[in-house]
Design a protein that fits this description.
This protein has 350 residues and is an alpha+beta fold. It has two domains: 161 residues, 2-Layer Sandwich (Phosphorylase Kinase, domain 1), CATH 3.30.200.100; 153 residues. It contains seven helices and 19 strands. The strands form three sheets. Strands 11, 12, 13, 14, 15, 16, 17, 18 and 19 form a nine-stranded antiparallel sheet that branches. The protein has an eight-stranded antiparallel sheet with strand order 1-3-4-5-9-8-7-6, covered by helices on one side. It is globular and about 60 Å long.
């Protein structure tokens, strides 16, 4: 399994070659090998992980934006004639990454197939600038255009040419459960970040979380009669979340596929006892919404692209309420997701 280095205290961004930066990252670090003809890569900078500290008024730089959390991330810029783009990489682990492209929130997005496994999402960022996002081997890779223009074809070329900065590290990272990589799983006192997680509303406020992998995760799943395999994906990790009002949900992560990049995440609660409201209101991000019946259960179903996902379902049984979310990717279509939902409802409904 992978063990990355951790800084003893927070520090500013440090210029470092990707191959050297990988040792400090809890995610697979990627480096570009194909660029538009007029472009070159500006040396990248690393933000090293450090333990959370109480936030202060002085923590207002880019390294610790007031919350005191010291997350690992890496960024570099691509610059050409009158144009420039920034690429940032990190493990999105404070919540399920909304729509698999959280940086494009509220913009109308479109998917391009990158290779036999992954898709690239194109849209606009919070500044209204053209942007792109992909999740590859669990790494979130976000690109924002800072100056000038990059065509969709050029963005596709950049992402399709990404290669591991340290090929020897990828197999170790892929073999490591999410609960061993996540900052919030390893630092329960880290400040919470309240964000959307999908196309149907579910958000947590301040809470305590307890993460497990291995036998402990399997035991958590058994308490809810959840399967050990869902949509062809084995159980990776499990967590229990409890807020200040005592409201509790359990989260089950199922991962697998190429470089463990395919994920299903089930959030389960006793009726009315957690933060999921059923029925769930749509989030403002453009998506398609439908109601259907699965195993005799009324389900709210939402998605972005019917071919690639991502999908989200919200449901209510006699003893369980829940939501199921998926990543996006080649082959992760409606048929696959509904089949996984059918499996889940058949088990937790016992």
């Amino acid at each position: 399994m992978w063990e990355h280095q951790i800084a003893p205290a927070s520090a500013n961004w440090e210029t470092l070659e990707p191959a050297d930066a990988q040792a400090w990252c809890n995610f697979v670090l990627w480096t570009p090998t194909a660029l538009p003809a007029d472009c070159a890569v500006i040396p990248g900078t690393l933000s090293k992980e450090s333990a959370p500290v109480p936030p202060t008024e002085q923590d207002i730089d880019e390294r610790l934006p007031r919350d005191g959390n010291g997350l690992a991330s890496y960024r570099f810029e691509i610059a050409g004639s009158g144009r420039r783009a920034r690429v940032k990489q990190f493990l999105y682990d404070w919540a399920f990454p909304a729509m698999d492209h959280p940086s494009l929130w509220k913009s109308r997005t479109r998917a391009q197939q990158l290779d036999a496994h992954h898709v690239l999402w194109l849209g606009t960022d919070f500044r209204g600038k053209p942007a792109a996002s992909a999740r590859i081997a669990r790494t979130t890779i976000e690109l924002s255009v800072l100056e000038g223009d990059f065509s969709a074809e050029e963005l596709h070329t950049i992402y399709a040419g990404l290669q591991p900065a340290d090929p020897a590290a990828i197999s170790q990272l892929v073999a490591t459960p999410f609960a061993r990589l996540s900052y919030w799983a390893r630092y329960p006192t880290a400040a919470q970040v309240v964000v959307p997680v999908g196309m149907l509303t579910f958000r947590r406020g301040q809470h305590a979380s307890y993460w497990h992998d291995g036998d402990a995760a399997q035991q958590q799943a058994k308490l809810w009669h959840a399967p050990e395999l869902l949509g062809g994906l084995p159980l990776d990790s499990a967590a229990e979340f409890t807020d200040s009002r005592g409201r509790t949900e359990v989260e089950l992560l199922f991962t697998g596929g190429h470089n463990r990049g395919v994920e299903l995440r089930a959030v389960l609660q006793r009726p009315g006892a957690g933060n999921l409201l059923v029925p769930a209101a749509p989030e403002p991000h453009p998506a398609t919404h439908e109601e259907l019946i699965v195993r005799g259960v009324s389900v709210q179903l939402s998605w972005i692209d019917e071919r690639y996902g991502p999908y989200q379902a919200v449901f209510s049984l006699n003893t369980v309420e829940g939501t199921l979310l998926s990543t996006s990717g080649v082959g992760l279509d409606r048929r696959w997701f509904v089949a996984a939902l059918n499996e889940l409802l058949g088990d937790v409904g016992q």
